[in-house]
From TrEMBL:
Name by which UniProt lists this protein: Zf-HC2 domain-containing protein
Keyword Repeat: no
Organism expressing this protein natively: Streptomyces piniterrae
Top-level taxonomic group: Bacteria
Residues spanning the membrane: 87-110, 122-140, 161-181, 187-207, 214-231, 237-259
Length: 272
């Protein structure tokens, strides 16, 4: 495959339905076709010349659909910002993000009305796992009615996972930034754990599914950190500045695993 366009060898083989084309070449071809009108025209010409039966089938289907499509009222064109937003978020993510924001606001209010300087900051305690809830919702089979189409799309997989994760972080991190500023918590104390948990969720999600990974991590955090911290009323070491190198290492390892196993996000199992 050339830098600018797909080679005719791959296009002709794709048009004929050859099975000897590598899976990564098929994926790259389909992803490239989304952005390249020239290669789409070349593929159309190859199908017409090399697979007349496919062309005849498409013409037959289109002749049956055209009268029905003409009778349907035109769909209002979406605004540019709405179309752009739909590429980063799914409608099912909105309630989950609203819930995450509500929990953040509640934790902030409880911190602000607390009495005593030794009390544990709930914003700091909950910040690492709050983005995980949004990430799980963005890649959940049960919450995405179009998950099969999503997983089969050419630009699905790691590319889409990272886009949706970035959209969750773009919403949650500013709220945590305000909460940390209002309660006097250092940014690094909650930012690195947030990023570490997000990367670990995606890394573990390539093995057991993103939703299951989120449940496991949130449950483990609640049992091993949140409960003991609330009982002893002392902030655990992992949330002190001394634990930041550990969170940085976890974040880097998570990113490394995600990149290494990037192909696993193109299968339906990642939606579990």
């Amino acid at each position: 495959m050339s830098v600018e366009h797909v080679s005719m060898r791959i296009i002709d083989g794709y048009a004929r339905g050859d099975t000897d084309i590598a899976a990564d070449e098929v994926w790259a071809l389909e992803a490239h076709m989304e952005m390249c009108g020239v290669c789409r025209d070349r593929l159309s010409a190859a199908v017409t010349a090399g697979a007349p039966a496919v062309t005849a089938l498409v013409d037959t289907v289109w002749s049956g659909l055209e009268p029905q499509l003409a009778a349907v009222a035109p769909v209002p064109r979406r605004r540019h910002w709405s179309a752009w937003l739909s590429g980063w978020l799914t409608p099912t993510m909105v309630p989950w993000l609203a819930m995450v924001m509500s929990v953040t606001l509640l934790a902030l209010l409880l911190d602000l009305v607390g009495n005593g300087s030794d009390e544990v900051s709930l914003v700091l305690l909950l910040a690492p796992v709050l983005p995980v809830l949004g990430v799980a919702a963005s890649w959940s089979r049960g919450l995405d009615p179009a998950y099969e189409l999503t997983a089969a799309a050419p630009r699905a997989g790691l590319y889409l996972v990272l886009r949706r994760t970035a959209s969750v972080l773009a919403v949650v991190l500013p709220a945590l930034l305000v909460g940390g500023w209002a309660t006097g918590v250092m940014v690094a104390q909650w930012l690195l754990p947030c990023l570490a948990f997000a990367s670990t969720t995606l890394a573990l999600g390539g093995v057991i599914g993103v939703t299951r990974a989120a449940v496991v991590l949130v449950a483990g955090w609640a049992a091993l950190v949140v409960a003991p911290t609330l009982v002893t009323n002392r902030t655990t070491f992992v949330l002190h500045t001394g634990g930041l190198p550990m969170w940085g290492l976890i974040f880097a390892l998570g990113i490394g695993v995600v990149i290494t196993r990037r192909g696993t996000y193109s299968v339906l199992g990642a939606h579990r």
